[in-house]
Design goal:
- The chain is an alpha/beta fold.
- It has a domain at about 30-75 and about 95-235: Rossmann fold.
- The chain contains 8 helices and 11 strands.
- The chain has a 9-stranded mixed sheet, with helices on both faces. Strands 5-6 form a two-stranded antiparallel sheet.
- Helix 2 (about 75) links the parallel strand 2 and strand 3.
Length: about 300
Amino acid sequence: MLQTQKLKNKDYEIKLPKGGAFNINTEPDFISMHSVILAIAKRGVGKTCSFSNLLRLMKKNNALDRLILVSPTYHNNAHYFKDLPLEQEDVLEPNIDAPKMIEEILDTEAQEYEEYHEKLKRWKKLNKMLKDKTKSIHDIPNELLIEFEDTMYNPPEHKYNGKKPVIVVLFDDVQGNDIMLPRAKLNQLVTTHRHKGKLKNGALGVTLLFATQNYTSNQMGLNKSIRGNLTHLLVFKNKNIKELEKIAEECSGEINQDTFFQVYDKAIQSPHDFLFIDLHKKPTHPSGFRRNFNEFIIPNTLE
């Protein structure tokens, strides 16, 4: 029998940093964010529809302030994005420049967020001095008076009311497009998604959604480096057993292959059903598997 001997010196213990990998507060039943989420389904099964529902859940959770859509078919699917925070300028073609454009958007949002809070500090300093009866107007620095000459009694404005914006990017049917070429650097965006939009202390981060017809593909498909960063999967009905086996293999840290197929069969009961796999479930969730978004499947209860 193996024995262990714990060191008395507590300096050797692992100390976890505050915040962790998922720093967006969401309601108990919802997923952790930021995330990288993949929906796999053949044409017409419901990938985009399911993602539009997920995006509305994000919005309800105050976890979606700006949506960026990378898609060659937006004109056919515009109705799915009604009432979501998607502006026409944020609909991008899946070309080689798209990842760089996304990073620039994140950097701009981070800059505007920090500029707002710096300006708010200066405005508060000015108003504190104005209220101080021991000081005259001559005691106040001219640069503050000039900066807030027209807005002295009105605080600075920010389009997200001072909140860190939560930005989500949906890549819809982009397989086979230039964005999947290595020189487009989509892989880099995925592997560093939590660190994009750098701030003085931390980063905004970004959640990435992929809607594809295949889990793997030899023709500019999702490579292993992207698949290795997935936090969630939506697996729709699929007749390709080898592809399902590949998904089961890459989920082997959660359940074995036999149990995976039991869970999958339990989830797929109608044409538009999907197995939702949460690889980073919250501790309060009874399972990392659901039928669609609203029904947990608990593997050890399956017969």
